[in-house]
Amino acid sequence: MDFVIIGGDAAGMSAAMQIVRNSKGHSITVLEQGGITSYGQCGLPYVLSGDVGSTEDLIARDPETFREKYGIDVRTHHTVTEVDCDHKVIYGKDDQGEGFELSYDRLLVASGAAPVMPPWEGQELEGIYSLKTIPDIKEIMAATTSDKQHVTIIGGGYIGLEMAESFVSIGKKVRLIDRGPQLAKIFDEDMGELVHEEAERNGVELHLGESVEGFKGDQHVQSVITDKGEYQTDLVLVAVGVAPNTTFMKNTGVYKGVNDAIAVNAFMETSILDIYAAGDCATQYHRIKKKDDYIPLGTHANKQGQIAGLNMIDHRRSFRGIVGTSILKFFDLTLARTGLSEQEAKNEKIPFKKITIESTHAAGYYSKEDPMTLKIVYHEQTGQLLGAQIIGGLGADKRIDVLATALFHEMSIDELEDLDLAYAPPYNSVWDPVQQAARKAD
């Protein structure tokens, strides 16, 4: 059987390796638009800061390893332009502009997502960047020379916050613009205030509720124009979100779901026979919302890719869904969340209550140096957990994973008290912060 995979990163190569490890006698071809496979995109901001020594450290396996060790025909710099699902043929171009066509028996679309660039005037100027790939971070690092001291970041999500910290760490002055009223919109407004305070404490200039209209400059960007003013800058990073890379599927009739991502079932099957999809180009089933969602993260991409690969060789296994867990470092804070925020619960018309407490990572008498703010949202009638948010220092990661596990298994707020969690003064109080919050429930 001839398997073709479009996309050579997390989802695509996870699928390819499952096919290799669990079957024999198949042909596997991977078409990758870039020149690098299987690397950690989430580590890119930390190359700029120096926390990761080199972009090479982010690469798990290069194309040669996949070809020589695993027998996977990885074709880099191959851009797919069209899929003919009636005749099972893929069309595209290589880096020389030469056209190619390739037949398949089963196809996996794992083409990921691309940064969004709104149609702002002047976006073609030099010095305006987005961040998604290793070549992107290399270009940004090459541009952060000593004479370019001021950076403007547009967008206050994951990439915007992580890159703000990285730019500050190498001595740049950072301005952050977001059209919304707060940074980190995946958090509720009260939790977002803690993020704003941390940004300002570290010298990040915030412009919230401000919409970008364009850029000015003579070949190279010199200023950013918004609906409230004009700001001089040496470099711009646009980080306003991503969109699924699915334009080559436009004539197939494949069903699309949230955010124009390819809709898949639990087996990563699309609406077209023998075509699968996984990762940032596909939907994910949300276990709390009880419907498909679009939350493009590396954790989901790897899991969905693995599931897709197994199902492509008829090893039936289902993807159990997500609960919306994520975490990021922002200067001295850890920002962590899982499940639904207050606003999401309202959007889903779910009646809820909330609890917010201030606690510490360790026992209070042992150390008060690692405070955390913990918020839990739960169903007003049933007490079922709906979501949680934690902002703090040490221990925030541990607690969010406890809560994510509880959400996955549909536990109630009362059942949190029954959990047998580790305790010793350097690590916890007798009642863990998660349980401290639970005990305050009505």
Automatic annotation (TrEMBL):
Residues 328-429 form the Pyridine nucleotide-disulphide oxidoreductase dimerisation domain. Gene3D superfamilies: FAD/NAD(P)-binding domain (3.50.50.60). Residues 1-305 form the FAD/NAD(P)-binding domain. It comes from the Bacteria. Pfam families: Pyr_redox_2, Pyr_redox_dim. This is CoA-disulfide reductase. InterPro entries: FAD-bd_OxRdtase (IPR050260), FAD/NAD-bd_sf (IPR036188), FAD/NAD-binding_dom (IPR023753), FAD/NAD-linked_Rdtase_dimer_sf (IPR016156), Pyr_nucl-diS_OxRdtase_dimer (IPR004099). Its cofactor is FAD. Belongs to the class-III pyridine nucleotide-disulfide oxidoreductase family. Keywords: FAD, Flavoprotein, Oxidoreductase, Redox-active center. One of its GO terms (molecular function) is oxidoreductase activity. The lineage of its organism: Bacteria, Bacillati, Bacillota, Bacilli, Bacillales.
